[in-house]
Amino acid sequence: MLQKGARHTMRPEWVSRDSAPPYRITGTENTVLIILVISDELYEAFAYDVPHVPFASLPGMKERAITIGGMSKSYAMTGWRIGYAMGPHVLLKAMQLTGVPHTISVNTMVQRASEFALDNCDDIVREISSLFRDRVNFSYEKFRNLPGIKTAEPKGSFYLFLDVSETGMDGEEFADKVLKEAGVVTIPGASFGPGCGNYVRIACTVPVDMIEEASQRIRNILV
């Protein structure tokens, strides 16, 4: 049974795990009472210092968790538009009532390719994860030392989320300036929700020489 009075304080809660932007891997010590979790674990292969722990593997969660995954990140199949959900049959059946219009058009070729990748490409995924970890670490060292830039050290995914407030610009202004004057593309933080207006996101997936060049170009217009 639910604890007495729990119905008075129940609310939906968004828990970000290995996400974009990532930077913190959620622990379990503050998880007190959870009825149902839909856990987006798209970046499960890119948890670095702390191993990825599927939410459904936590005590008591197997029958109350739906795990969402996909092929675009771990298997470099961005644009193929395919993902999957795992969970108790009764919950997936309920999802299917609204999800069919969004999944019915996935073509056979993409499904077969995804099946092959899931069955045969674990070693490649580990290689990609190791490569991106090195690029993330390299990017962190380069960008955290730029004038007016602050950023947390990522613990997962393959992005940096740069706080540009000390440059005197917000994220939109900064992104526009570095695009026009440095030829470097960033994503304004406002795209990721309230409270992110002073940030920009950069991807650390390109070779380190390009990361080096991008950081130097940005430095040149900030000094």
Q: What number is the mean pLDDT?
A: 87
Proportion of beta-strand residues: 5-15%
User: CATH H-level name of the largest domain... which superfamily?
Assistant: Type I PLP-dependent aspartate aminotransferase-like (Major domain)
Low-pLDDT runs = none
* Major sheet: arrangement of strands: 4-5-7-6
Question: In angstroms, what is the radius of gyration?
Answer: 20 Å
CATH class of the largest domain: Alpha Beta
The CATH architecture assignment of the largest domain turns out to be 3-Layer(aba) Sandwich
The total tally of domains equals 2
Largest sheet: 4 strands, antiparallel
Class of secondary structure makeup: alpha+beta
Q: What is the 3D form?
A: globular
- What is the percent of helical residues? 25-40%
Number of helices: 5
Write the CATH fold name of the largest domain.
Aspartate Aminotransferase, domain 2
Oligomeric state of shown chains: single chain
Q: Give the SSE order as H and E letters.
A: EEEHHHEEHEEH
Tally of DSSP β-strands? 7
